[in-house]
Amino acid sequence: MKKVLIISTSLRVNANSEILAQECAKGAKDAGHEVEFITLKDKDIKFCKGCLACQKLGRCVIEDDANAITSKIKEADVIVWATPVYYYEMAGQMKTLIDRANSLFSTGKNFSEVYLITTSADSSQGVVQTVINGVNGWIACFDGVEFKGYVEGGGLENSGDALNRQDLLEQAYNMGKNI
């Protein structure tokens, strides 16, 4: 059994990336894993100030929701990021959280596997690649961590469109099931 942390970074109501993330969570639970689901909706996460105090303290000096989430990232075996794609990149709130998790460099981490779920209005293949590059940049900073897979949900323009895409729902579920 693995501790799986799924982080939904969309702030949109009925977000497509969150719908797929919930399916991934179902698959991981059905596989017998311990799953925690975090949504960034209603979370207060400020920008990193680049002070690097986190490297000495083991946590960020900014008092908001990022420290609690970073602690959960640290303790998980598997991280699943779910994000809408804005201008061919991860959502800003996802990048902000990644930046705020800088304390993990000095405190260590448990996770060794990272997965990704993206959704976008653009239906062309490969929209996910720039997001994968960003996630791989984060992963490269940790020894022993692998990017294990992704679900790319293109052609999802309106809130809730993912509910009508059985193919994507199955892909997300199966990714969770195969963690």
Structure, described:
The chain starts with a strand and ends with a helix. The longest helix has 15 residues, at about 15-30. Helices cover about 35% and strands about 20% of the residues. The protein has helices at about 15-30, 55, 65-75, 90-100, 105, 130-140, 165-175; strands at about 5-10, 35-40, 80-85, 90, 115-120, 145-155. It is built from seven helices and six strands; from the N terminus they run βαβααββααβαβα. Strands 1, 2, 3, 4, 5 and 6 form a six-stranded mixed beta sheet that branches. The chain has one domain (about 5-175): Rossmann fold (3-Layer(aba) Sandwich), CATH 3.40.50. By secondary structure, it is of the alpha/beta class. It is globular, with a radius of gyration of 15 Å. Helix 1 (about 15-30) crosses helix 7.
Notable characteristics:
179 residues; alpha/beta; Rossmann fold; 7 helices; 36% helix; globular
Summarize the structure.
By secondary structure, the chain is of the alpha/beta class.
Tell me, what's the shape? globular
Strand content: 15-25%
Main β-sheet, in a few words? 6 strands, mixed
CATH class: Alpha Beta
Unreliable runs, pLDDT <50, ≥5 residues? none
Q: Strand tally, please?
A: 6
Mean pLDDT: 96
Oligomer: single chain
Span between N and C termini?
Answer: 10 Å
Class computed from helices, strands and strand pairing:
alpha/beta
What's the layout of helices and strands?
Layout: E1 3-8, H1 16-30, E2 34-39, H2 54-57, H3 66-75, E3 78-86, E4 89-90, H4 92-100, H5 104-107, E5 113-119, H6 129-139, E6 146-153, H7 166-177
Parallel strand pairs: 1-2, 1-3, 3-5, 5-6
Antiparallel strand pairs: 3-4
